[in-house]
Amino acid sequence: MTLEQKQKWVEGFLQRIGRDMKHTRNWRCEFCKKHARETVWMNSSWIHLTPPKINSYVHSICDAGKGPCYEQLRGYEAQVALMTGFPPAGPPLPKTQKSYPMSASCIVCNNEASESRKNLKQCGRCELTRYCSVECQREDWKRHKECCKAVKEVKWVWN
């Protein structure tokens, strides 16, 4: 596998598990402390090493497209760009919906009701992704299994 193929695989993998990471707990915006609705990943990778290494900085934010929290996030992006040598990500992609689901909701049905959020259960295997019912977990298994199986091979450092 070439270095370029490895980089492409890593980027794809991180995109595929992004939803799982968002729904690991009741994340708050790191700037204003409102419920987080979006996650922004900033990565530094050293895939040419043996074994390859990657650091992912995952930012939970209320709105990654505008406002004061977005402006602070752009400052972080500039710092990561200096550290990695890659340019900042640039303007956000246009939103595909009005509002993204809250991080404290079930990953499948996105039920944001307070009672539902209080009763969420984590996946019994990886202990990350949260579901409101066994039915929602079963429905999500085909998508979730890649992240679930990878968890034991990843060193998670939570700040």
The arrangement of helices and strands along the chain is HEEHHEEH
The radius of gyration over CA amounts to 16 Å
What is the β-strand count? 4
Basic shape: globular
Contiguous uncertain segments of 5+ residues: none
| Helix coverage percent | 25-40%
Task: Work out the strand percent.
Answer: 5-15%
Q: Let me know the largest β-sheet.
A: 2 strands, antiparallel
Number of helical segments?
4
Look at the structure and give the mean pLDDT. 83
Helix-strand category:
alpha+beta
Please give the alpha-carbon distance between the first and last residues: 33 Å
Strand order of the largest sheet: 1-2
Number of domains: 2
InterPro entries: Znf_MYND (IPR002893)
Protein name: MYND-type domain-containing protein
GO molecular function: zinc ion binding
Domain MYND-type: 106-148
Structure explained in plain terms:
This protein is an alpha+beta fold. It folds into 2 domains: 72 residues, no CATH class; 51 residues, no CATH class. The protein is 38% helix and 14% strand. It contains 4 helices and 4 strands. A two-stranded antiparallel ribbon has the order 1-2. Strands 3-4 form a two-stranded antiparallel ribbon. Strand 3 and strand 4 form a beta hairpin. The termini are far apart.
